[in-house]
Design goal:
Helix content: 10-25%
Distance between the termini: 134 Å
Number of strands: 14
Order of helices and strands: HEEEEEEEEEEEEEE
Structural class: alpha+beta
Strand content: over 45%
Radius of gyration: 35 Å
Largest sheet: 12 strands, antiparallel
Oligomer: single chain
Shape: globular
CATH superfamily of the largest domain: Lipopolysaccharide (LPS) transport protein A like domain
CATH architecture of the largest domain: Sandwich
Low-confidence stretches: 1-39
Length: 211
């Protein structure tokens, strides 16, 4: 091979070096991309923390209706808030709620739970709710008995918006007319009508007829 051909071949080789380097760099870059963990779902999402984001001692929470009227108060020896589900856990909970007509509900329990996006407060652990009608309250034009209704159970739920006490566990209801027990309950404070189910037993003395 002549010297000219060697020089020509050397020039071609020199001109090809940048292409070879670029090809190698591209291949190396592709390998890095394939080897790196994916950022779009391959890595499992971090689990929500099981620890509260804040805790309060001897705290009180007040709830108001859209007109600015106080309708419910929650007191607790301690309150812990969890981001997961916007959940509030309460130790030694005390509930007080009064509607526009003056009907009053008070509840106590060892533990309580409330959800920021809902209107229900759950009382559990020797839960006790006392529903007292407003003075001079009537239902369908008839004056109602002013005696309070006492509801006891291991777990009771109170909807502060609908004014309903409910439970899927055994409960006991005590009233001036007697005492009843059942496996579940739905009690509407506004109408003072309670529905007991599942092995209901007890005693109820109907009030004397009005003359």
């Amino acid at each position: 091979m002549s010297t000219r051909r060697w020089l020509t071949a050397l020039d071609h080789a020199r001109s090809a070096v940048p292409m070879v380097l670029l090809s190698g760099l591209a291949a190396f870059t592709w390998w890095l991309v394939q080897s790196a963990p994916s950022l779009d779902g391959a890595r499992p999402a971090a689990k929500a923390s099981s620890s509260p984001d804040y805790e309060l001692q001897k705290a009180r929470i007040e709830r108001y209706n859209p007109d600015g009227r106080l309708i419910a108060i929650l007191d607790g020896q301690a309150m812990r808030h969890y981001v997961d589900g916007d959940r509030l856990e309460i130790d030694a909970v005390q509930l007080s709620a009064r509607d526009l007509q003056g009907q009053h509900v008070q509840g106590v329990a060892r533990q309580g739970q409330a959800n920021g996006s809902q209107n229900t407060v759950v009382l559990h652990g020797s839960a006790r709710v006392v529903a007292t009608p407003a003075s001079g309250a009537t239902v369908k034009g008839q004056r109602v008995d002013q005696s309070p209704v006492v509801i006891e159970g291991e777990m009771l739920s109170f909807n502060t918006r609908d004014r309903v006490v409910s439970s899927a566990l055994p409960v006991k209801i005590t009233h001036a007319q007697g005492q009843m027990q059942g496996g579940n309950l739905r009690y509407e404070e506004g109408t003072r009508v309670g529905q007991l189910g599942n092995r209901v037993h007890g005693r109820y003395d109907a009030p004397p007829a009005r003359r």
